[in-house]
Write a structure and sequence with these properties.
The complex is a heterodimer of chains A (about 200) and B (about 220). Chain A is about 30% helix and about 25% strand. With about 200 residues, chain A is α/β, with parallel strands linked by helices. A five-stranded parallel beta sheet of chain A has the order 5-6-7-3-8, sandwiched between helices. Chain A has a three-stranded antiparallel beta sheet with strand order 2-1-4, with helices on one face. In chain A, helix 2 runs parallel beside helix 4. The longest helix of chain A is centred in the C-terminal third of the chain and has 16 residues. The two termini of chain B are about 25 Å apart. Chain B is globular and about 55 Å long. The chains are: A alpha/beta (about 200), B mainly alpha (about 220). At the A-B interface, helix 2 of A face helix 1 and helix 5 of B.
């Protein structure tokens, strides 16, 4: 599977965020997006997730079923934790499992060390724990491409190690990761795409 | 199918745990019904004549009260982003959420309204036709409300705008809902059929319209 962006341009609110962006990422590849605030890292991730349309250029997915859109191969974890506060951790994950496909609830809970918190309402979780709940989606349902927007924000050291292990495992099983992050995650990216060359 | 059921189950669970939905709407409904006789005066014949119309209008307003919440929270916390990446088309996401709104708000109101009409000296013979027409009409009310909710999904105070956008679309349901509850079988029969047709039409058209609006906001 190969994700390719060709001459991508993105506009938000009439302002050109980035232009003529090219990248290609294959199986087991890890692409790190860097750049100052507002350079378009999140916008690029949203484009790939199907939550936006490029002003120019195109996104291609090679080596996949032609009738399945790119976004259905992707997991997208961003600033919104997409967790409902009145539901328990388990209920939140069960809902995402039903919606996104099949998966193992136990694997999802264990991946981010949430098993002990499974029956807590999400309202009682701290910001870091909520982030872990959002990240647990990655292990809950198998999808090839992970789009991560600042995935380690709010995580303590132990949880960061869990995230790194999760990502390494995903890469080892031919998964693809595109992550926007300012901090070094402890995994060496195979490619770095620097956005915002122009001010 | 599993995704649709999961979404519906989640929304029902949310409504049950969060409260606010049907409780507020029913409270509002009851308050207006108590205020109406005070405003109109105690003449029982006048009240009886006005009762079906006032019940219908109060029903429309009560349904609108909770309409802005259909998509807003999911839009703000990123849930809608993830939903749009599932294999379930956004049209069915809308359908599930409109159904949850119907089950938790419109339907309970439609069932309770004819009986609360006793407060307005509603003729007892009108209760059953009114119940039937309100249940049929309420399907369209929730579905059309989902259009308004999707159009105002990123507005902080979208509730008022929804009313302006949606109330005109409620007029046909109001007209035929009222004529279906007259008790005259010659008028009520065809009116009920038209109400059913409108419920079915909104079942098909509202998800298309609302999903298009949501896509525009997500992109």
């Amino acid at each position: 599977m190969l994700v390719r962006g060709e001459n991508l341009s993105c506009e938000r609110g009439g302002r050109l965020v980035f232009a003529d962006l090219n990248f290609a990422l294959g199986d087991g590849g890890f692409l790190q997006l860097t750049g100052r605030n507002g350079a378009g890292k999140s916008s690029l991730l949203r484009l790939i997730a199907g939550l936006g349309e490029p002003a120019q250029g195109r996104l291609l997915l090679e080596g996949a079923a032609p009738d399945v859109p790119l976004c259905q191969y992707c997991h997208y974890v961003a600033h919104g934790d997409a967790a409902k506060t009145v539901l328990t951790v388990r209920e939140n994950l069960l809902f995402w499992r039903d919606l996104l496909g099949d998966g193992s609830l136990d694997a999802g809970l264990a991946s981010m060390n949430l098993t002990a918190l499974a029956d807590y309402p999400a309202a009682l979780l701290s910001a870091g724990q909520k982030r872990r709940l959002a990240l647990a989606r990655l292990a809950l349902v198998q999808r090839r491409i992970w789009l991560l927007d600042e995935p380690s924000v709010g995580l303590d050291d132990a949880s960061q190690l869990l995230l790194v292990a999760l990502m390494q495992n995903h890469l080892a099983t031919n998964g693809l990761i595109i992550a926007a992050t300012h901090v070094a995650l402890g995994i060496k990216p195979h490619q770095v795409l620097h956005l915002g060359g122009t001010q | 199918m599993k995704a649709l059921a999961g979404l519906l189950r989640r929304d029902l669970l949310l409504a049950a745990r969060q409260g606010g939905g049907v409780g507020t709407a029913l409270g509002f409904f009851l308050t207006v019904l108590v205020l109406l006789p005070i405003g109109i005066g105690p003449d029982q014949a006048t009240l009886q004549r006005l009762a079906p119309g006032m019940l219908w209008i109060t029903l429309l307003l009560s349904v609108l009260l909770s309409a802005d919440r259909i998509f807003q929270q999911d839009f703000e916390d990123g849930s809608l982003d993830v939903m749009s990446m599932s294999a379930l088309p956004l049209e069915f996401v809308v359908l599930a959420k409109a159904m949850a709104h119907w089950l938790t708000t419109s339907l309970p109101l439609a069932v309770a309204a004819p009986f609360l009409g006793i407060l307005l000296n509603l003729e007892t013979a009108t209760i059953w036709p009114l119940l039937l027409s309100m249940i049929l009409g309420s399907i369209g009310l929730s579905l059309i409300a989902s259009i308004g909710a999707s159009l105002t999904v990123n507005l902080r105070r979208g509730g008022l705008l929804i009313s302006i956008l949606i109330l005109p679309l409620y007029v046909p349901i109001l007209v035929f809902g009222l004529s279906a509850s007259t008790g005259d079988a010659n008028i009520a029969g065809p009116s009920l059929l038209i109400l059913s047709a409108m419920a079915l039409a909104s079942l098909v058209l509202a998800p298309l319209a609302a999903a298009a609006a949501l896509r525009a906001y997500l992109k």
